[in-house]
Amino acid sequence: MPSNQPDQPKTVAERRRAHLITSAARVFSRLGYAYTAMADVAAEAGVAVGTIYNYFPSKRDLLEATAEDYIIAPLREIVANPPASEMEFLVAIIENRLNLGLKDAGRFVTMVNELQRDPALRRRYAEKSLGPILRDLEDYVRQRMEDGTFREFDPASLVRAVGGMFVGFVLITRMEGDKTPVDVSDPARVARAMAELVLDGLRCR
């Protein structure tokens, strides 16, 4: 099952870049993006400030890379190597998103908030990262419609509706805190229940 951690890098440069992203994610979550200086990230990573600029020209570029690695890359891995069945494919995606939202919420909320606050960054992220993965998911749905597995829907609307379902689930259960009646300690079980609900409406009768 793909995790919400960046892939293990291979070269020294890749390992250094991944380390900087992980360090930035921790600091952004702890201090907030607006209150984070590159010096804070450097101290967390144990490197000189100049080292960060060798990889990321600005704090905005560092945030964008962090969002890409934590939010989009795990989805891209699932889509690139999908499980054989529609059920397991959807379970993998939903469980991954639930793990991100429930177990790594600080990083997720920080990144999403900043993407919303910065129109230029949001547009660039939507074009470079979010748009391609949404189109890949739309293609997956479209293929299942063509082979008769799924009923006819608008793929673009369907992908966004399903995505909104588990984002909303995360937000509601987090607002409820320990008072939520949902057992969120087992994301795999919750993901399977949600996948069954979605597929029940999608499959051809």
Descriptive notes:
The protein is built from nine helices and no strands. It has 205 residues and is mainly α. The longest helix is centred in the middle third of the chain and has 28 residues, at 119-146. The radius of gyration is 18 Å and the shape is globular. The two termini are 30 Å apart. The model has no long low-confidence stretch (mean pLDDT 88).
Indicate the low-confidence ranges by residue numbers: none
- How many whole angstroms does the radius of gyration measure? 18 Å
Alpha-carbon distance between the termini?
30 Å
- Strand and helix order: HHHHHHHHH
The average pLDDT score comes to: 88
Q: Based on CA inertia axes, which overall geometry fits?
A: globular
Find the structural class using helix and strand composition: mainly alpha
**Beta-strand content estimate:** under 5%
Please report the number of helical segments: 9
Measured as a percent range, the helix fraction is over 70%
